[in-house]
Amino acid sequence: MFVRYIVPHGLLELSCISIAGVAGLRLARALIDPGVRPRAEALRADARGAVLMVLGTAPWLVLAGLTEGFVTPRALPLGAAMAVGWRSQHSSGDSC
Q: If you write DSSP's letter for every residue of 31-87 in order, what string do you get?
């Protein structure tokens, strides 16, 4: 039962959440260990990459939300739910 409701959107959503966590760790690294640069400069430089990472996940989160809203309530059989989850994770050849 759990797998049937989570797999269609959960794999994609958890991948995006992981990437957002990496973006946050990147910002934390700039604050904790800026190297030879001032903290503000290190944060500014790393923030650009972190923001791009987070913005790159936005379309995938929209897809996960649409899947959660329209596919999950249909209570698909387990095989169909897994197929939707696999297809959403591999929809463009690249995953989140």
A: HH--TTS-HHHHHHHHHHHHHHHHHHHHHHHHHHHHHHHHTGGG---HHHHHHHHHH
The answer to whether the beta carbons of residues 23 and 3 sit under 8 Å apart is no
Look at the block and give the residue holding tokens 């904790």: 32
> What's the length of the chain?
96
Q: Which pLDDT score is estimated for 65?
A: 86
Radius of gyration of the CA atoms of the chain, in A: 17
Paired tokens of 59: 């379309």
Give per-residue pLDDT as tens, 31-90.
999 999 999 999 999 999 999 999 999 998 888 888 888 777 777 777 777 777 777 767
Q: What is the pTM of this model?
A: 0.73
Distance CA 39, CA 92 (A): 38
